[in-house]
Design brief:
By secondary structure, the chain is α+β, with helices and mostly antiparallel strands. The protein is 43% helix and 13% strand. The structure holds adenosine-5'-diphosphate, 2-acetamido-2-deoxy-1-O-phosphono-alpha-D-glucopyranose and magnesium ion.
Length: 356
């Protein structure tokens, strides 16, 4: 246990003295640790990335409000993330070195998957995110702070990309012309969902905004959903963001940073599976939202690819990387998925219609 984590842990109301604290999970943003106490209680300790999340009190206010609201609807203790308070009764700690920390109860006897092990796992993750959306349908969205403004504003992501391209601070643009061209050729479509939100064709909802498969916990035995985790980006948004990001990650046939692009495509069977699960758990979507689901999947994937490319051009300052060029590998898988979705467009449309 390092000095800082040891000091931080002491400030939280844990059951028993902490005996270990190890790095845990595969997140790209926060630093996550598994803490085990003498009485074998397990907790998740997270150092919140406050260079990405500028308003940590606002973010923690969102998480506290949403988990409190869900807690009233859900009786299973593992059905909602549970924040562990500090000894002075706060939801998070501002450490003396300026870092922010929080602790959650560890969701025991659970699975957190990097890729679905069966279509049924993916179906259940769709139910989890669909439930989340449905359960928050009456939550007052305007009371949440916009943790990262324009988070899924794809058109804005393009502006940021073009700024990075113009600056080209690492001189990397010359080596990624094919990826730059791929992105620019699709710029016209980028504003589709944000424009429809702005003109009221799509409703504003409370959304999770980061619906990767590894942000849902399944029960280890039943493999049914327990809860949705990683609530940092819960904000007002479109249901298409949540649906689309799940397809991007979970219906892909390979890891987000797979180098061999011949292994990467969108599995249309998994697309169908997720669509069925999501729509069954979240029946209140409007006809327009349902019709736009394929566009949600494509734009979330395109946007993520553009974000990875931007970060590559900027010298990998946002997403955690484990080797040089990882953001470019990630960008390439996303663009391969977009191209594959384009080739399967009519089939995607047909499937959505059949799932209604
Ligand atoms: P990041 O924003 O960096 O992705 P997450 O909140 O998703 O951080 O946490 C990273 C990983 O830690 C998750 O993918 C999951 O494996 C694990 N994890 C997070 N919270 C819990 C929890 N309460 N119980 C069990 N595992 C958790
Ligand atoms: C980040 O936190 P994590 O690893 O679940 C990112 C998402 C991206 C994702 C790509 C706050 O998610 O937006 O889609 O990486 N989160 C943030 O894997 O930027
Ligand atoms: Mg995560």
């Amino acid at each position: 246990m390092c000095d800082v984590t040891a000091q931080v842990i002491k400030k939280f109301c844990l059951e028993g003295e902490a005996v270990s604290c190890e790095r845990y999970g595969c997140g790209h943003i926060n630093v996550t640790y598994l803490v085990v106490t003498k009485s074998s209680r397990r907790y998740i300790l997270q150092k919140i990335n406050n260079s990405i999340f500028k308003d940590v009190p606002g973010l923690m206010g969102n998480i506290a409000a949403v988990t409190k609201y869900l807690r009233k609807l859900i009786s299973d203790p593992r059905g909602v993330l549970t924040l562990v308070p500090t000894k002075d009764g706060k939801d998070y700690l501002l450490h003396t070195d300026g870092s922010f920390w929080r602790v959650y109860d560890f969701v025991e006897d659970s699975l957190c998957l990097q890729a679905p092990e069966s279509p049924e796992d993916f179906y259940q993750s769709a139910v989890a995110f669909g439930n989340f959306q449905q359960q928050l349908k009456d939550f007052p969205a305007d009371t949440l702070c916009e943790v990262i403004p324009n988070f899924h504003n794809t058109a804005d992501r393009y502006c940021i990309f073009k700024e990075a391209l113009a600056a080209d601070v690492c001189g990397r643009a010359k080596d990624v012309q094919a990826e730059i061209d791929f992105a620019l050729a699709r710029e016209q479509e980028a504003g589709t969902v944000v424009n429809m939100l702005a003109n009221g064709e799509l409703p504003l909802r409370v959304t999770h905004n980061d619906t990767k498969l590894n942000n849902v916990m399944l029960d280890e035995t039943t493999r049914k959903p327990l809860c949705v985790i990683d609530l940092d980006t819960v904000m007002p948004g479109s249901s298409l963001y949540d649906y689309g990001d799940s397809i991007r990650f979970g219906a892909a046939t390979a890891a987000e940073d797979e180098k061999d692009l011949s292994k990467v495509w969108m599995d249309i069977g998994l697309f169908e599976t997720y669509t069925r699960g999501f729509l069954s758990a979240c029946p209140g979507l409007t006809e327009m939202e349902r019709g736009m689901l394929p566009m949600g999947a494509k734009l979330m994937t395109l946007e993520c690819g553009v974000r990875f490319l931007t970060d590559y051009l900027n010298g990998d300052t946002y997403f955690r990387t484990h080797y040089e060029g990882q953001n470019l590998d990630r960008c390439r898988t996303q663009f391969k998925l977009v191209a594959d979705m384009e080739s399967k467009w009519d089939e995607m449309k047909r499937i959505v219609k059949e799932c209604e």
